[in-house]
Design a protein that fits this description.
Chain lengths: 188, 719
């Protein structure tokens, strides 16, 4: 089931038309449409926020605030990929949240100790831990975006304002590092 | 673990970690506020909202007396501080620098002050709040935007002190937000004329004073009226020019105001209007702004005449029209029949006066914009790019954009120069990509060509589909060489059954070399990895040839190429000894001969601006890891690890045997097993294979001794 979902995310065009429809309905004040939009895209928004903020709590706040913004401003949507519009909002909010932080070194979040997220398995925690510790900024953003948003590499390049070739090579490097980290963790 | 599986795990982890609190969200959704999101108007080729990087801070100090009589009598207002970006805000302070009132002087200012009650606040606190709001709402952005702060106080000394304080305070706030500034200081006298202009044009006294200074110091071509519509940024640019020429005696400047070489907003406006064939009197110009596109500064001029909206980009140095866009605001007459992509293309081509055969990269895409159903049609002719929006029911041209790309110039920030300055053009780039793919244009669909810069090098991005395979090429814009390629095959994942044939690593390598057009002897740092992917066997083959890196996935049963990835690395600015030399250096340092090394891996990378090669290999049971300086070949770092109990790959039983042993122990036949994974762990204290698979609702994990094939441990659980 999950694999199918991922495949679906990769066949983006049809799905994006549906998101556009939902945005139009949200602009008209339809809360159910907002709920559907939330259900479909919260993971992508969260993934982007986490890639910037590195902290669960902050990323969660930005995620919820993003959809609040969407509720208020869906009427501003002017065409183009709906997912990109959503992610631009998330990105702006993430950047603002980053600016709000002091410069001090925040202690690395201990993903393995996080409480009360019932769906979060032990393996999930390992994966997230690896992503946040083993990768550098851009690698992390690129690989998270590619994994959850259904954006193609070139769209990710546009969103992050990086050349496509950089995105491709960082993406591959990130996966290599992740793989090394995760498989290293599994040795007895 | 394959890439796909890795991403799957990531997706799963994020999906589980992401908040799922719809109720909480909905409870916070009241009436939709429709607040403005600070997004600039986007055309199809624009980038997303840039990070905030720069602003100019302009301070103007006034020590005047006019207009204060009434206030001085009341004894309340000691100083008036006003802030201008485009929003214009006026603060009235008492003698203890507390805010008595905060007045927005235009619509933008209303937005900035929204929800804020600054009365009774310290000046510092108010400044913080206002500048914070400016940043948050996007009024200060990467274009050298200015904040003009004016202090009016009858007491000249107090005014000076306040000015210094505001300067420091504002700079500190902006620095805290990673924004750098330039300061313009002015002393002036208030006057009746100034007050009148303030009222008439709805601007603050400070802005009026600045304009007056510019007019007075200018050569008589500028009138007060002509400058009123300019943003503070524009005025700052204008005034800095005057300061440098010494023409404006009352102005001093510090910091960088580096845009003084431009033609000016007036000239840009004229250029735009004349190009559009619209007279100044017929047009309402509502925006003239700087922007940075395609490696040059441009003025963006937007105006409306009649029913048509115009947007022009004017080169800030030469005054040439770089791009323009016109949009007719016509309502779409309800539902009708979809004209279809072909008709849309014809409409666009017809408007441009071009035939389909004369253009390249012709595409049409459906889109919705402002509630209209449209076709977006794009094509190139030579180095000119065309972008059309065609009404999807009536075939009318809703908007069109034409962009000329100049010849290639040397890179912006010291990037790699493209030498002679040639640009092969979109057609040649397209041809190069198709040729590399071995396809003709008639065999492909959804062809797209996009021109762009990467580190000062001109490149073309060419994309197209053939059947269910997607091709993505980057072509060097000066030479036509293929810089990188990405081929993704679609199709089902059913693949071959696990009990099919296995072509073997050698055949997989050959298939990869053949696909790359590289002779086996020309390949170096060859690496082959065998993998299972959802029950399908495949080989990952990686190798270098010269400075090009190749990455192939070969179907382990059929030998077909599943995916390929090539990357040509540009030569480093200094020398680049190359992968071969790096390898040799590493072998030499280790005292290992090339033939004595196995599982050799070479990776090229930059670290802190220095080119490096990472060379990894085994010799016997010792593992080596070298970092070689890519310019000199010297050893930067070395690591060595002995694995006395390790088995070299040739001594181990092999992944096939390991899998067989595990399946046999579990009593599961290979055809009933899925999600099979076999990982060699040969450098452990007890060299083994980790075998995982699922069958009949159960999940199995085995550790198989790599020397004997015996079962070391196992686990099974319900799936």
């Amino acid at each position: 089931m999950l694999f199918l979902t991922l495949l679906q995310a990769e066949n983006a065009p049809e799905r994006d038309d549906e998101l556009k429809e939902l945005l139009a309905q949200v602009a008209a004040g339809d809360r159910d449409a907002l709920g559907e939009l939330y259900r479909r895209t919260r993971t992508a928004v969260y993934g982007l926020a986490l890639s910037y903020l590195k902290r669960q709590g902050d990323a969660e706040d930005v995620t919820q605030n993003t959809f609040l913004r969407v509720w208020d401003c869906a009427g501003q949507y002017r065409g183009g990929r709906a997912m990109s519009w959503l992610l631009t909002i998330a990105r702006n909010l993430s950047l603002m949240a980053l600016r709000g932080r002091k410069e001090e070194d925040l202690p690395a979040e201990d993903w393995l100790a996080l409480p009360d997220r019932p769906a979060l398995t032990h393996e999930d925690r390992h994966v997230l831990s690896a992503v946040l510790s083993a990768l550098e900024e851009r690698e992390r953003r690129i690989v998270l975006l590619h994994a959850v948003t259904g954006l193609k590499h070139r769209e990710i390049a546009a969103l992050l304002e990086l050349p496509l070739s950089t995105v491709l090579s960082k993406y591959h490097r990130a996966l290599k590092k992740l793989r090394a980290q995760l498989e290293g963790d599994e040795t007895p | 673990m394959t890439d796909r599986e890795l991403e799957q795990k990531l997706y799963q982890a994020l999906d589980h970690a992401a908040p799922d609190d719809l109720e909480g969200l909905l409870s916070r959704c009241g009436t939709q506020k429709g607040t403005v999101i600070p997004m600039k108007k986007q055309t199809a080729k624009r980038r997303f909202l840039p990070l905030l990087t720069a602003a100019c801070l302009v301070l103007v100090v006034a020590g005047g007396t006019f207009g204060f009589n009434q206030y001085r009598q009341s004894g309340a207002v000691a100083s008036i501080v006003s802030l201008d970006v485009n929003p214009s805000i006026e603060l009235k302070l008492n003698s203890r620098e507390k805010v008595l009132s905060a007045t927005p002087l235009n619509d933008d200012a209303v937005l900035i002050l929204d929800g804020m009650d600054l009365t009774g606040d310290d000046l510092n606190k108010a400044m913080n709040a206002i500048i914070g709001s400016l940043l948050k709402n996007g009024y200060v952005d990467e274009l050298a935007n200015s904040i003009l702060i004016t202090v009016e106080d009858a007491d000249a000394q107090r005014a000076a002190a306040l000015q210094q304080k505001l300067n420091d305070e504002a700079s500190a706030i902006l620095a805290g937000a990673s924004v750098s500034g330039a300061v313009l200081t002015q002393t002036l006298e208030n006057s009746a004329q100034l007050q009148q202009q303030t009222q008439e044009y709805g601007i603050s006294t400070g802005k009026a004073a600045l304009i007056q200074a510019i007019v007075a110091a200018g050569d008589g071509t500028q009138t007060f009226e002509s400058l009123v519509g300019l943003s503070i940024n524009e005025l700052n640019l204008l005034s800095s020019g005057l300061v440098q020429s010494g023409a404006a005696a009352t102005l001093t400047a510090t910091g960088s105001a580096s845009q003084s070489a431009y033609i000016g907003a007036e000239a840009a406006k004229s250029a735009a209007l004349s190009a559009a064939g619209v007279s100044a009197s017929a047009a309402t110009v509502y925006k003239t702004d700087f922007d940075y596109e395609d490696g040059r500064m441009v003025y963006e001029v937007e105006f409306r005449a009649g029913q048509t909206e115009y947007e022009y980009d004017i080169d800030a140095v030469t005054g040439d029209v770089v791009a323009y866009q016109q949009k007719v605001r016509a309502a779409q007459s309800g539902q009708g029949t979809d004209i279809g992509a072909e008709a849309a293309k014809s409409a666009a081509l017809g408007h441009a006066g071009l035939s389909a055969s004369a253009v390249t990269g012709l595409t049409a895409r459906q889109d919705y914009d402002d509630g209209l159903f449209l076709y977006e049609v794009e094509f190139w002719k030579g180095t000119t790019e065309y972008d059309y929006e065609i009404d999807g029911y009536s075939a009318a041209v809703v908007s069109h954009e034409v962009k000329t790309h100049t010849g290639v110039t040397a890179g912006n920030s010291g990037g790699v120069s493209t030498g002679g300055g040639t640009d092969i053009g979109a057609d040649a780039a397209k041809a190069a990509a198709l040729s590399a793919a071995g396809l003709s244009e008639s065999q492909v669909t959804r062809l797209r060509v996009e021109r762009g810069y990467d580190d000062g090098r001109l490149e073309y991005d060419v994309e197209f589909w053939s059947g269910t395979t997607e091709y993505d090429y980057e072509i060097d814009g000066a030479t036509g060489a293929v810089l990188s390629s990405d081929i993704e095959r679609g199709g089902s994942q059913s693949g071959s059954s696990a009990s099919g044939t296995d072509i073997g690593a050698a055949a997989a390598k050959s298939a990869a070399f053949a696909a790359a057009g590289v002779a086996a002897g020309d390949a170096s740092a060859v690496k082959v990895e065998r993998d299972y992917d959802g029950g399908r066997l495949k080989y990952e083959v990686e190798f270098w040839s010269g400075t090009t890196e190749y990455d192939y996935e070969i179907d382990g049963t059929t030998g077909a190429v599943l995916s390929s990835d090539t990357e040509t690395h540009a030569a480093a600015a200094g020398t680049d000894i190359g992968a071969e030399a790096a390898k040799s250096a590493a072998f030499a340092a280790a005292g290992v001969s090339a033939s004595g090394a196995s599982s050799v891996r070479v990776e090229r990378d930059y670290d802190d601006g220095r080119l490096e090669y990472e060379v990894e290999f085994w010799s016997g049971t010792t593992e080596y890891d070298y970092t070689i300086d890519g310019a000199t070949g010297s050893v930067l770092k070395q690591e060595r690890e002995d694995h006395p109990n390790a088995l070299s790959p040739s001594q181990a039983v092999g992944t096939e045997a390991a899998l067989a042993a595990a399946l046999s122990h579990a009593g599961v036949s290979q055809s009933n097993a899925y999600e099979i994974e076999v990982e060699p762990e040969l450098d452990e204290r007890t060299p083994h294979y980790e075998v995982q698979f699922k069958s009949g609702g159960m999940e199995y994990e085995y550790k198989i001794d790599a020397a004997t094939g015996g079962v070391l441990s196992y686990e099974s659980e319900w799936d």
